[in-house]
Design a protein that fits this description.
- Two copies of one chain form a homodimer.
- With about 400 residues, chain A is α/β, with parallel strands linked by helices.
- Chain A has helices spanning about 10-15, 160-170, 210-220, 235-245, 260-270, 305-325, 380-385, and strands at about 25-30, 40-45, 55, 60, 75-80, 95-100, 115, 120, 125-130, 140, 150-155, 175-180, 185-190, 195, 205, 225-230, 250-255, 275-280, 285, 290-295, 300-305, 340-345, 345-350, 355-365, 365-370, 390, 400, 405-410.
- The interface between A and B is large, with 98 and 98 residues.
Chain lengths: ~400, ~400
């Protein structure tokens, strides 16, 4: 039996991943930029708004003309016009004058505040009665108050959210420079694996990893293409990996959980041109039989064959790496959203490896509980029954029931 | 000034939304089913695995033949074959016999356990020395232990995760029935709105809501098409809405924040054939000037024109509704993931309306803090500076600093 020859910690894997080159950039239309990662800084080319705008319906006034106005002692202003939406007012507000203005309207020159319509009353003679004072700037969104020209709004490496798309539009950026999306080549290896459309003969099983890992990859917006099912044959494995390296940015092969299959894969990878095995075995459970290599400067992940192990390793390392390739930070390690929960029962763990324990979440009496879902890593059903996982750090002996834990949803 | 004539609570809006018809179903390939919502129950048509499989490298044995074996008093078994991956073993294990088996291999008939290779030693004469006993079922994944035939694994209304895609594949389902994706027609209305490619003249502003609301819609996997920018003109508004209703499943128009624009929109909607205004004003802040109508049995949302208000109403009601149309539960109301945080400073609020306060998250000393981001709903930059929002319930007077709050990320 051959032992793993280069077992590394998860932290070391992240260091290795950080040494790969990021992808290049491309321009995309702003309307489809949601979810992409900025490759440029977004700097405001102009003030927003371009001039002062009313935030209420009412009258544009000079604030000083309203001082002292009350219900019992109202003031009177001469109405010199009406602000229309979408047009620059062609009049000015002089002393003692006002203009009707709708919410969103640009203030005419001379005005510095908006008096809400509730406190006004048209007097019928071309003037308006006002019963409240306003201060300068009241009910007005000043020029550049939303965004000031030259302000750095978003930085490279930022994943674009809906509000960011709106901001790009507001700044007049119809296109934006983003990192290219990684293309991931996926293969399932093993003599026992058959396509899902086929009814497995005795001794055979259907390919699940192409589908579960493929969906994980899609979940971070990367593209997937399948290299198919590859038998445990050195020439076929070699050919598939080389095709993946040539056509993709990353290759993820899930394969053999037996020693023989692992040895075959390690031999194949070592023999590839411009290849270097970075890790052969990772101190993580499930997922120890993971191989990481650099082939022609691109990353090759050999994930374990067990369906749960393949998904955990893909979630923890592959997805983080895909986000890194797109310009995001690797630091956090785990992709996906996190929630807090109370651990319902204790999790035992072995020191010296990072453990990922599947958990099912339950809301009870207003608290969120994480129930460990135990079961072998060959059981995909344990993933289907789970909502996420809890990470037990490499040097911990476990986590006691009742403690607060962070659950990464999947 | 016309007041809102039918102000309803957020709870009433959800009740109204629940009365619309859900979308129909369609078949999609399993490889692209991630993120779709199941329209059928997934019931296991067969046992997984189809027969007992080894979870370790070693020897397939009859457990009773290993009883009492130790390092000092090893047992000996006759090796009658080797299990190959992907093939049904053509031999049986009789009393006193064993067969080599790799991880994942199907057990030959007669064997009921796998003895790990670590505890074996080939004796050279066609037999193997064993130094540990195993119990029946040890290192074996039994037939149907992952999934039992007839088991209901997933129910209609469930949004498909990566592990579910893997499970569908494992069960041999190459296609799956899912709810159709909603098609959402979007328009921005207002005489002041210009396309983002154009440099706004004085009095004009660029269209942001088509982009921010469009991205929100995309974020839940729905499709978007734009009806363009529509001027404040009854005939044009009517035409745009009717086109949206005819070509889309839902129409979301963002429009006018002034009383005049709101009145015009309400008049246009009332005059449409088969139209009924369900809500005109919602007790929510920001977002009060929201109009909800049913037109030809389809939902029409008129979102406020202010960019923040438009996004909040779209996030709270429109996204929940899109998920509902796709078969998910409306109950939770809010789409999106939630995290807990400590409110950094108090939020004042007005009773009688639900308030959505933008917050920026900060991690400090291992705790997550939510800092309220104050600013007018006409400032899109306040959304860009925020990570999510905190909901202040309709009957609360606010939330005190230091309390735990739930933040919905956007």
């Amino acid at each position: 039996m051959t032992e793993f020859f280069r077992v590394v910690t998860p932290g070391q894997v992240f260091e290795m991943l950080a040494s790969f080159d990021r992808l290049g950039s491309e321009k995309v239309k702003t309307e489809v930029a949601f979810g992409r990662v900025l490759a440029e800084a977004v700097v405001a080319p102009e003030d927003l708004p371009a001039g002062p705008r009313a935030t209420m319906d009412g009258y544009a006034v000079k604030a000083q003309d309203t001082f002292g106005a009350t219900d019992s002692l109202p003031g009177f202003l001469t109405v010199v016009g009406k602000v229309e939406m979408g047009r620059a007012p062609e009049f000015e507000i002089g002393a003692g004058q006002a203009a009707e203005i709708p919410t969103g309207g640009f203030l005419p020159a001379g005005a510095d505040a908006v008096l809400m319509v509730e406190y006004t009353n048209p007097a019928g003679d071309g003037s308006v009665e006002i019963s409240r004072p306003v201060t300068a700037g009241e009910n007005v969104l000043g020029r550049g108050e939303d965004v000031a020209r030259g302000e750095v709004l978003l930085k490279p490496g930022w994943r674009i959210r809906p509000q960011d798309v709106g901001m790009l539009a507001g700044l007049g950026k119809a296109e934006v420079s983003v990192f290219q999306r990684p293309r991931v080549a996926i293969a399932s290896t093993g003599n026992e694996i058959v396509p899902i459309e086929r009814s497995p003969a005795p001794g055979q099983i259907r390919d699940t990893n192409t589908y579960s890992v493929g969906a994980l990859v899609r979940s971070v917006g990367a593209e997937v293409f399948s290299l198919g099912i590859v038998a445990d044959d050195a020439a076929l494995l070699r050919k598939a990996i080389l095709r993946g390296i040539s056509e993709g940015d990353v290759v993820a092969v899930s394969g053999g959980s037996s020693v023989g299959e692992r040895d075959l894969m390690a031999d194949v990878v070592s023999s590839l041109p411009n290849a270097r095995i970075l890790a052969h075995g990772v101190a993580i459970s499930p997922g120890k039989p993971t191989l990481l290599a650099s082939v022609h400067g691109k990353a090759l992940f050999v994930l374990p064959g067990h369906p749960v192990s393949a998904m955990v390793v893909a979630e923890v390392f592959l997805l983080a790496f895909l986000r890194f390739l797109e310009g995001e930070d690797l630091a956090s390690g785990l992709a996906g959203r996190k929630v807090e929960a109370v651990l319902a029962t204790s999790i035992p763990s072995v020191q010296g490896r990072e453990e990922y324990v599947r958990v099912r979440l339950e809301l009870k009496d207003g608290r969120r509980y994480a129930h460990p879902v135990f079961g072998r890593s060959s059981m995909l059903s344990t993933m289907v029954r789970s909502d996420g996982f809890v990470r037990v750090p490499i040097h911990a002996e476990g986590i006691a029931g009742g403690e607060n834990v962070e659950v990464t949803l999947f």
